[in-house]
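Students often ask why we bother encoding 3D structure as a string. The short answer is that it lets us treat folding as translation between two languages. Here is a chain of 186 residues written in the first language.
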Amino acid sequence: MKFRSIHALLLAGASLRSSPWVLAAFAVAALWAPASSAAAPVCDAPQNRAVLRLQSASPANAQACDLNGLEKLPARTIATALPPALGLPGVQHWSGVSLRQLVEMLGGGEHSHIQLTALNDYSIHIPWSDLVRYDPIVAYSRNHQRMGIRDKGPLILIYPFDGNPQLQTQEYINRTIWQVNAISVR
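And here it is in the second language, the structure alphabet:
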């Protein structure tokens, strides 16, 4: 017999009035079977140069976004001055997508490993607690203008520094990764 799914196999086993041990074996096999977890696309297929690669736990779920695709997602703006070490003085208005929203769209959650990587291969782990507590954004514009590579763009992770004095540490300066080109959620 050929079965299309574990569910069909279980139904067939039940219809054969198999012993409880056989049915239990089918149930255990169903738990170990890989789940179909094809994540829905975060962005439309890129029409321009992709600026962000998104990777969930399954290599088959790799996605790419261009700036137009990211701009179609729900946006947030954070008005904040960055710590002086980041070299952008004064209050800036940053617009972008919530990192938490992106992680959740990729199937991530509380126990996920979240990694952002920059064009120069600098990589940083962002804990889920940051997403819950501070809801940083992957910003694609500063003061209503897209950012070039020379301006720390086209994407930069921004925390709400002004409203949270506890963010004024080297740890969060390091997490403010610029020239982001990949987000991996495992």
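Translate back mentally: Strands lie at 52-55, 63-65, 76-81, 91-98, 114-118, 123-125, 137-142, 145-146, 156-158, 180-185. Keep this in mind for the problem set.
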